[in-house]
Write the structure tokens for this entry.
Amino acid sequence: MRRLHTQPRRRTHSAATLWASLGLAAGLTATLAGTTTAGAAPSGFVSHLAGTTTIASTVPANGDVNPYGIVVVPQTTGSLVKGDTLVSNFNDAANLQGTGTTVVQISPAGAVSTFAQLTGPLAGSCPGGIGLSTALTTLPGGWVVVGSLPTTDGTSATAQAGCLIVLNSTGHVVETWAGGTINGPWDLTAVSAPWGATIFVTNVLNGTVGSSPATVDKGTVSRLQVLLGFGSPILFDQCVIANGFAERTDPAALVVGPTGLALGSRGQLYVADPVKGRITVVPFATTRFRPAIDGGTTLTSGGGLNGPLGLALAPGGDVLTVNAGDGNIVETTPTGHQVAVTQLDPAGAGGDLFGLTVDAHGTGILFVDDGDNTLKLSGT
């Protein structure tokens, strides 16, 4: 377990003291969303989806394309409006991967604005600069955290470690989190607690760059503990909770490695593993201090899975995963049974789906479509 230096100022805390005094396990257990009962009948959430609607283009004024990350705003604060959707763009107007700099904000009615356009220098270290990835979330208090996996020319040869960028509720950078266990942050999920939040982030550049096109089993999931309520968020602890995920560079996708994440009601973390075509489970993700080897236990593989990328939980606790290899979404129960496969992307094309989330009403799926750079809703 290694400490992280945040910039522009440095804080030092005793992780053991903070964990004990803040009641970490109890706080997390109380705030985990959703309930899942072992042996419960499959919910078949996606089988009720009927039709897809385009909400808006995700292309901002600067021309950024390739929408990746997605999160629904839970509370109105500053420029953030409850129910709006934030989307991060990975490519610039020239369609170079790892060079996108914008987070757009889209209302349910389709009004689009630029929440943040990030240009250097940032308020802190971010090796390689800015190339916003699928890693995107909000934290209590109106903070937004977005990942950067940057390149200089859109190729994996120039990819660098990047960072997590912390924005305030008006879209301004307040600090960055870099180094330590963070190396190519690709996707993330977060859960709040009375004292702050826990962020889980996948990392895909551990030994990948320079090994192309070889596959290496060095992908990781890091757990970051963040204290809130004392000015800007304080990152006070981090550790790797899962390792051994397969990852490789790719001329079309830049890098392929562990992607979508979702936290179950019993502290189990689900992870999409596209290289091996499976969904894994990391048990005791909120409290463990040793990494689960080989990415954890395989929940499901094969079947409808075809390069699983983005991942979310249905209201009943089933795992929803979109495929890189086709336009489908796959629903899997917590016991590992695939109960539904549905075409989500209207074009049915591969390589178009990345970020997804259940909508604010809990009845449909919001997702980004890389094929035409839009935010779409598949509902009942």
Summary: The longest strand covers residues 234-250.
